[in-house]
Design a protein that fits this description.
6-stranded parallel β-sheet; 7-stranded parallel β-sheet; Rossmann fold; globular; 13 strands
Length: about 475
């Protein structure tokens, strides 16, 4: 069918991500890839989230349509909060409840437009009966990688968290019994408490794991940002656990626009500073837009950077969801003492541009999957400081792969010291013992940054969507 009449072959695909920009942006990137192949995209989110999206190139003006569906008001959710970046971690349960309230308007849209496919996130477990009734094919798109979804186990495992006893803390501290190969994938105590919480019913009436499980029951396939070349055994495990086609998108390395930002004043001043530094001498620090880092953690991180003596570029922005809370402050005199050593950057920074600069030699990261991909596509070894969801597993597996080192922390409360930060930074940036880590990270850049390799995955995915829609929804000849 992929070679048939072009108008018959044109798909209408609804993209519906969870209300977090760490999810919305990868969904938008995938939308562009699909639209480039001539297919029509309807991208659903809330009005404020759509208004905050980066402007898409004019070539997509006829193929990507943004559909604004209001977010119902819910007690406990602050006024105008429409994404995780607008709220604290504790308020996310109310955002899930509010998103459930979008069901009626989403149903109306689907009934009116009857698309070929819905590509959805984990949270909208209520889409299954609607799409089944309307004969719309459905896939789950996981923006996190295969080991996190595999760690959660079978669909039955996830759904049972709503009805039976949720998993115990101890179950998260070791690799699950259903993983048939050696792995370091396990949580620390301070991380496992969060996982236990996500396994319990909340104000929305269901647990996060239940959402995942019910979402997975009725989908025709699982789409995931992963590739066979990197830890491919997890993709096979995912298929074995769920008995559904698993379609990797590849790693979707972002494209570094050669001329964008060249006249941007921020980039000009950043570039001037970086240009003055020797090759590979600067550690870049960015902990993502979703991580709320406490004042004591800021203090220890600052102390560690100062003690290391290594040049640094630290993107330190007001934490997401902090509302009217005072922005984090650095200890008195820190910026004066380190003025010759590093820069504190308090606004948006062009991360790809910085990571691509020859003076950057290491990346201190929160271990979000997108950030890991961006760091390794430029061959940077990782200094890892994970906080949420999949980040701890990412850190364990990447340290095991030999491309980074995790900052040691207290197992129980997750605290770390300036001294442990300094040691990790020095190891990665300058010590002989870190040489093999630096070399392995450099080697991986040829895989993580291989555009042709990852584009092929996207082509295979689009072929699947084209060839499977007729069988799945019965609106064409088999």
């Amino acid at each position: 069918m992929a070679n048939g009449d072009e108008s018959n072959n044109k798909l209408h695909i609804v993209m519906f991500p969870w209300l977090a920009f760490g999810h919305i942006i990868p969904f938008l990137e995938l939308s562009k890839f699909i639209a480039q192949k001539g297919h029509k995209i309807s991208f659903i989110s809330t009005p404020r989230n759509i208004d905050r999206l980066p402007k898409i190139p004019s070539e997509f003006s006829n193929s990507i349509t943004f559909v604004k569906i209001p977010l119902p008001k819910v007690d406990g959710l602050p006024e105008n909060a429409e994404a995780t970046m607008d709220i604290t971690n504790e308020e996310i349960i109310y955002l899930k409840k509010a998103m459930d309230g979008m069901e009626k308007e989403v149903t109306k849209f689907l009934e009116k437009n009857t698309p070929d496919w819905i590509i959805q996130d984990f949270a909208q477990y209520w889409l299954a009966p609607i799409s089944t009734r309307l004969g719309i094919s459905r896939t789950f798109y996981s923006i996190v990688n295969a080991w996190f979804i595999s760690f959660l186990g079978s669909i039955e495992n996830m759904i049972n968290t709503n009805n039976c006893s949720p998993p115990t803390l101890e179950e998260f501290l070791v690799p699950p019994k259903w993983i048939p190969f050696e792995t370091k994938a396990a949580y620390r105590s301070h991380e496992a408490r969060w996982m236990v919480g996500s396994s319990q019913k909340n104000v929305s009436g269901v647990s996060d794991l239940y959402r995942n499980g019910v979402t997975l029951i009725g989908v025709d396939a699982i789409i995931i940002r992963h590739c066979h070349e990197f830890e491919g055994q997890w993709l096979k495990l995912l298929e074995d656990l769920h008995h559904k086609p698993v379609l990797p998108t590849g790693l979707m390395p972002p494209i570094l626009e050669s001329n964008s930002d060249e006249t941007n004043e921020s980039w000009i001043s950043i570039k001037e500073w970086l240009d003055d530094k020797p090759k590979g001498s600067v550690v870049y620090i960015a902990l993502g837009s979703e991580v709320t880092i406490g004042q004591s953690e800021i203090n220890e991180l600052a102390l560690g950077l100062e003690l290391s003596g290594i040049s640094f570029f630290w993107v330190l922005r007001k934490p997401s969801g902090s509302g009217n809370i005072d922005p984090v402050e650095l200890s008195d005199g820190f910026e004066e003492r380190t003025s010759g050593q590093g820069i504190i950057w308090r606004s948006w920074a062009p991360q790809l541009k910085i990571l691509s600069h020859k003076s950057v030699g290491g990346f201190l990261t929160h271990c979000g999957w997108s950030s890991i991909i961006e760091g390794l596509m430029f061959g940077h070894p990782l200094i890892m400081l994970p906080f949420l969801v999949d980040q701890g597993l990412n850190a364990r597996i990447l340290e095991d792969k030999g491309v980074g080192v995790e900052v040691p922390r207290n197992e129980e409360d997750g605290s770390f010291t300036g001294d442990s930060v300094a040691k990790a930074v020095k190891l990665i940036m300058m010590e002989n013992d870190g040489k093999i880590i630096r070399e392995k990270a450099k080697e991986l850049s040829s895989m993580f940054g291989n555009k042709d390799l990852h584009d092929k995955y996207i082509e295979n995915l689009i072929e699947f969507l084209e060839d499977s829609r007729k069988v799945s929804n019965g609106r064409g000849s088999n």
